[in-house]
Amino acid sequence: MASCLISRHFALSLHRNVRLSAPACRYVSKAAPKTQQDYDYNGPSMKTTVPGPRSQNVGAINFFCNYEESRGNFLVDVDGNRMLDVYTQISSIPIGYNHPALLKLMSNPNNLSTLVNRPALGILPPENFPDKITESLLSVAPSGMSRVQTMACGSCSNENAYKAMFIWYRNKERGNAAPVDDDLTSCMINKSPGCPDLSILSFMGGFHGRTLGCLATTHSKAIHKLDIPSFDWPIAPFPRLQYPLEEFTRENAQEEARCLEEVEDLIVKWRQKGRPVAGIVIEPIQAEGGDNHASPDFFRNLRNIARKHGAAFHVDEVQTGGGATGKFWAHEHWGMDDPADIVSFSKKLLTGGYYHKDELQADKPYRIFNTWMGDPSKNLLLAEVLNVIRRENLLEEVTRSGKSLMNGLYELQAQYPGILSRARGQGTFCAIDICDDATRNSLLLKARDKGVLLGGCGDKSIRFRPALIFKEYHVHMFLNIFNDVLAQHK
Amino acid sequence: MASCLISRHFALSLHRNVRLSAPACRYVSKAAPKTQQDYDYNGPSMKTTVPGPRSQNVGAINFFCNYEESRGNFLVDVDGNRMLDVYTQISSIPIGYNHPALLKLMSNPNNLSTLVNRPALGILPPENFPDKITESLLSVAPSGMSRVQTMACGSCSNENAYKAMFIWYRNKERGNAAPVDDDLTSCMINKSPGCPDLSILSFMGGFHGRTLGCLATTHSKAIHKLDIPSFDWPIAPFPRLQYPLEEFTRENAQEEARCLEEVEDLIVKWRQKGRPVAGIVIEPIQAEGGDNHASPDFFRNLRNIARKHGAAFHVDEVQTGGGATGKFWAHEHWGMDDPADIVSFSKKLLTGGYYHKDELQADKPYRIFNTWMGDPSKNLLLAEVLNVIRRENLLEEVTRSGKSLMNGLYELQAQYPGILSRARGQGTFCAIDICDDATRNSLLLKARDKGVLLGGCGDKSIRFRPALIFKEYHVHMFLNIFNDVLAQHK
Fold it and tell me: What GO cellular component entries does it have (chains A, B) (predicted)?
């Protein structure tokens, strides 16, 4: 394995010699314009089936990777297979592998101290931390939010966001008076009123993480939830839109109205049974649950329902945030000045955390707290990722690539109506349904053996989650290979 | 702030010129032997009160730090105050600030890829990851455990450990048969039998984290739990030992027997009310809750009670693990071959996670899972920390320093019986009680202004949590200053 490790200097000079060569465009007649990305590879290169002989395939492990040799949009495995990565570590790699800007950043000796001295951020932050947060996370704060709390991962982000909503809700109920003795003593033994019977309303098909609080709002697959105790919290239906959208305008509007009505009914019902809804949590696109979309109108109405019933509105952008929809946050597509009370993130942001409105700030120190509360070394990476996104206009690139990807999916869907349906997406955050689960899984493996790494979601969907540096050129590379896979599919 | 940033090369050459000078030993008559630690400072140096004018003091923030200038046992703040750190970022810095071995590691270009390409470890691990885990975490695996699961933080570690216990318990109940349809459908809506009414038994005064599952087992302070919904899980009393231990042998044995009896009663009671105890979780020393100790016999008996009732036994070593008790794991002091079914860790281990016995392995992939499942860059740091611990015999140092610290605390307690009581500890993981909360807080601030950073725990205790490189020399430095603070206390 030592031979796989290459020095940075050698690596950089090596990759200067890698230039893009013209791809063979079997599917799309016109060759897509190539962009100079001298650290990226020019295409997949497969030496074995995957997993190959040097890999292992146990439990959930797909195969073992050679991250040193991976570049840009290409993930290299231990057998030297180089795959176009349209899954990017479950949508968590923002600007590809070994981006030169990040390598440079991490080799800057000025950053060493941040790498080796992880602080307890909540009590002893580094002197420049507020500035760093202003430059990074707050520079992309959702509309109406000027506060952010970092956390270590997506689940912790949502758990703490839920806590912030509960604290806010109970303070309202107390009229912002201090808790009484009964609150303070009963909470120590997990009892009401100190530990109140409040709830979070979530949606069937939603995914918000796997720790016990998050899991009570996750309803995408049984394997996530089986055998784990949960809370009696309300679960609303998420709209099941029919595609193509333009043919089902009326039906889809009715479906969304039905779901919103159910949300209100549940809020009333849970209030009546003594478990008031303190917050509503929703993904702008249900990702893990099958890339389920709803209209901006649906979300605007839902946000109003939350407000009307005194519940906080939490938009979970763990998977949608960071630019893949063509906007930095997917909720920006709703066109609202006041889209949410809380927006949580992780994955492409490289650190977990949540933004919140001023009133969702906990009233006392140590209520939202843990030892690390994030990690300044991840913030360092994020700040540079944001620089690259701006410098390289990556949101525009995503919008452009996303259009090509959707057009290609529409064409493939027209060509293979027995296999493909319901092509949908925003930016490059796209998905398509396959006729059944077995075919979906077979296509995923065949595509992988041809050098395209994809992920599934929901019962029978394929989700596309490329990095933000996925250009039209890469879209066509993917479409060519996927077309071959479909053509050979029996 | 840029002027505070120093290049690595400059930093190393600068600190070679810093040598320890003989301390003025006001408290201890004989001077402690000095150890050559050429990157450490020779003592505190205070320029202002803390927080000083360049710091801010909002919410839980104590003050802002200059981590670039901090070295070894000394934390430097933004006003240039240099404090002997006996709290170490809530016990999470294993070998001091800017340890040369860690600076060297992080400046090795071979490690750059690990810093910039964070994988989804559960599905696409780096090729050398199993070897790295074997060299690092598994090289210090608790007795009887050969499996480890990394996680991002302490709370996630415990949440997932609880899930592993629930899954194991339900599989036992099903006779390892596959779940039936009713299990799979009911779990999607948070209902039994899919989401069963199982419980985790915890102890009053325990702290296991602040996410909703963990929080249901945390009972140290009301501020952690107030307003957050919880589970109806059993809570047993933790022994309240009387000190000095040798004077209260009989009373303490009775107290421990009482608590164990209560544990068994609770297990029976919760089984009867349909919420069987799937696991028992306990800290070897209740840290956040006030540094509460129990005898090895107590833990051995408790482990047997868990076995007898078919519950898993989870030892939470998030704060005690990593060497501060003089053994790598605090449970080693119990002298058992089979101390636990699960041991969780974080903090000084730099990554979260938990060890478990083979039978606690989830039966299917994706049951214990999340996007990152830890972070190889933290594992890299941990491996080097373990090398340093071995190379520098730090566990022996801790034992030696711990004895000095305890002797010093006993002497101070004899000298100030109106203020100090119940000195207790293992290794340097020590604590002492102060007469009341207000005096405790006043002493903490006075010590800080004299250059010693300490933390509180429980109602009125001070906890000592130095790094593993805290030598006898530093113990005496602390005792001198603390003695001065006590002498001046009105």
Answer: mitochondrion
